[in-house]
Amino acid sequence: MARTFPPLEFSYGSREAIIYALCAGMGQDPLDRRELDFVYEPRLKLLPTLLTAAAWDYRFIEGSGIDEVMILHGAQRVTVHAPLPPAATVVNRFRIADIFDKGPGRGAVVVAETELREKASGRLLCTHLWTSYARGEGGFGGPRGLSEPPVTVPHREPDAVVAAATTTSSSTLYRLLGDVNPLHVDPDVAIAAGFPRPILHGLCTYAIVSRAIVAAACGYAPERLAMLDCRFLAPAFPGDSIDTEMWVDTGTATFRATARERGVELARGTARLADSAPPPAVSAAAMTPA
Questions:
Q1: Residues paired with 259 in a beta bridge
Q2: What mean pLDDT do residues 13-38 have?
Q3: How far apart are CA 204 and CA 210, in angstroms?
Q4: Would you state the pLDDT for residue 142?
Q5: Hey, what long-range contacts does 179-184 have (CB within 8 A, 24 or more apart)?
Q6: 1 in a structural domain
Q7: pLDDT of residue 250
Q8: pLDDT tens profile 58-93
Q9: What angle do helix axes 14-24 and 202-216 make, rounded to 10 degrees?
Q10: Which DSSP symbol is given to 66?
Q11: DSSP string spanning 193-209?
Q12: Residue 180's domain spans which residues?
């Protein structure tokens, strides 16, 4: 936690924005003009979670003794402070916010925070709080932290369900944005980590949820998404059809993402819309899995 990390720079433009939108499921219907806005340069809109591709930072693993093969993404929260410029160079300032010990055989949770600013202006664009679950590292005597259950969804039919079809090459496409963890493409690495085949990036599932919220809760107005908080419950596999169910109330949306064919719940969480009041402060510990 005392380590410091030099800032990293990440440049993006229409190419990165379109790749991200495609990974999120935008543009799958060639006649849907609302989604064309996210994959067509002359009228391009950006998903506000695009910079998760720049916030994901593995440098904390170097020299830590953590087994990289056994690490998984546990949760992700993006708070949006300003609309993303159409193209920019952003500066990633990264720190370890907390580390929790779930006990021998249960792993450890590393909570990281990343601020992303536009280099030219210094303007803060977004803050990311994300957790990594180091499955082989528990029992070192650290604090246990909170163990909160996933978000509870309302006991009624969802207000909207947004479908996204991934393909067997979705992980290969997503890694073009910079997350080159071999777990997502190399079958030998995936098997060593305990999976039958490569799994989809957690942040690709997050992108799919982001697209669903922007589409159904924000009316395709990305500037309305102010915060997206997601807990990952199970990995998706490239080729899964992912359904995001959501329940929309004033200023908020609660969601659940499921792999349709396998009947496996992948993620749950909440979103805050820009026309709502800020939520109460939540500690980093509240982001940890049970």
A1: 242, 264
A2: 95
A3: 10
A4: 80
A5: 179/53, 179/56, 179/203, 181/58, 181/68, 183/69
A6: no
A7: 86
A8: 788 888 888 877 888 889 999 999 999 999 999 999
A9: 90
A10: -
A11: TT-SSPPPPHHHHHHHH
A12: 8-287
Helix (H, G, I), strand (E, B) or coil at 187: helix
Amino acid identity of residue 152, one-letter, is T
Which one of 37, 179, 240, 243 is the catalytic residue?
179
Max Cα distance, the chain (Å) = 56
Give yes or no for residue 157 having a pLDDT over 60. Answer: yes
Is the CB of residue 281 less than 8 Å from the CB of residue 275?
no
Q: CB under 8 Å to 73, separation ≥6 — which residues?
A: 130, 131, 132, 133, 201, 202, 203, 232
Alpha-carbon distance of 79 to 282, in angstroms, equals 12
Range scoring the smallest mean pLDDT among 36-40, 119-123, 181-185, 284-288: 284-288
**Dist. CA 281–CA 207, nearest whole Å:** 24
Active site residue 179: yes
For the cut 60, the answer to whether the pLDDT of residue 175 exceeds it is yes
Q: What residues contact 38, with CB distance under 8 A and at least 6 apart?
A: 17, 18, 21, 26, 27, 44, 45, 46, 47, 211
Q: How many CB atoms lie within 10 A of CB 155?
A: 6
CATH code of the domain in which 140 resides: 3.10.129.10
Q: Is 231 inside a domain boundary?
A: yes
Q: Which residues contact 247 (CB under 8 A, 6 or more apart)?
A: 153, 154, 156, 158, 159, 253, 254, 255
Q: Is 19 within a domain?
A: yes
DSSP single-letter state for residue 150: P
Whether 2 maps to a domain, the answer reads no
Over 80: is that where the pLDDT of 147 sits? no
Based on the structure, what is the number of domains in the chain?
A: 1
Question: What is the C-alpha separation between 151 and 229, in angstroms, rounded?
Answer: 10
| Residue 186 is a catalytic residue | no
Catalytic, out of 57, 73, 128, 184: 184
Contact 209, 236 (CB under 8 A): no
